[in-house]
Design goal:
Elements: H1 2-23, E1 50-58, E2 60-68, E3 73-93, E4 96-115, E5 123-143, E6 147-149, E7 152-154, H2 156-159, E8 161-179, E9 188-198, E10 203-208, H3 219-226, E11 231-242
Antiparallel strand pairs: 1-2, 1-11, 2-3, 3-4, 4-5, 5-8, 6-7, 8-9, 8-10, 9-11
Length: about 240
């Protein structure tokens, strides 16, 4: 997980120069003695052109193709995904130390529209549809220490474990904001999106063993608690190449 975070940071740092070029001030190249050249419309540099992009962020890596429709609108389609396997972390739950092993997997197909409301800026609003097959995660929870009752000590293996699984497959709406263009002004560009997918309520299953078997009866309550988490977040940094 730390390696993944460091990779994102390096990707963002290396792309700052491209972002500056995409949105920088070109006033040094303007001859202000000739008022006819104070502002030159840059739109022809990406009019009706396409681009490909590499996405890095959450949820995962992806590839996209984008096409300019007019001055304010672009469309883009892409495929992305992430697999996280056997990620272990130690937690303290109400004073009880537990170990949690997490698995996560997603594969999503996106079809989004991008709207730029300002003529001279790279701010954008993004919306569209996505399809997840699947969006799936599970957490295996075990005690890291046993429990003592008087002179009797019960090991963590004897106490048992709890497996919580949640998954969703199907269509999802997407809404987001960002900066940068799907089809850049220059040959290379950089953009960033913040948004969320509306995925509805996931299917939740709880499996408990040994002394924790009664926990399985709380599956319905857990599913109700998770039903409020209908939005799945997304942050995406895109390195773009104009075709």
């Amino acid at each position: 997980m730390k390696v993944f975070a460091i990779t994102i940071a390096l990707f963002l740092f290396s792309s700052l120069g491209l972002f500056a070029q995409e949105n920088g001030d070109n006033s040094s190249n303007i001859d202000y003695s000739d008022t006819s050249k104070v502002w030159v419309d840059p739109y022809p540099s990406w009019e009706n052109k396409g681009a490909i992009a590499l996405n890095l962020g959450f949820p995962g890596l992806g590839l996209e193709y984008a096409r300019n429709l007019n001055r304010k609108w672009n469309y883009r389609v892409g495929l992305g995904g992430l697999t996280l396997k056997d990620y272990s972390m130690d937690l303290d739950v109400n004073g009880t130390p537990v170990n949690t092993v997490i698995n996560f997997r997603t594969l999503n197909l996106d079809a989004h529209m991008e709207f730029h409301p300002f003529k001279k800026g790279s701010f954008k609003m993004v919306g569209g549809l996505s399809y997840f097959q699947p969006l799936k995660g599970d957490a295996l929870i075990t005690l890291t220490e046993g429990s003592s009752y008087g002179d009797m000590t019960i090991s963590s293996e004897e106490i048992g474990e709890i497996l919580i699984e949640a998954d969703y497959s199907g269509p999802a709406a997407y809404l987001g904001l960002g900066f940068g263009r799907a089809v850049p002004k220059k040959r290379m560009g950089f953009s960033i999106d913040y948004g969320a997918y509306y995925v509805g309520s996931p299917d939740v299953r709880v499996t408990a063993t040994k002394m924790l078997e009664n926990t399985s009866s709380e599956e319905e309550e857990l599913e109700q608690n998770m039903s409020s988490y209908r939005w799945f977040p997304k942050i995406s940094m895109r390195l773009v190449y104009k075709l």
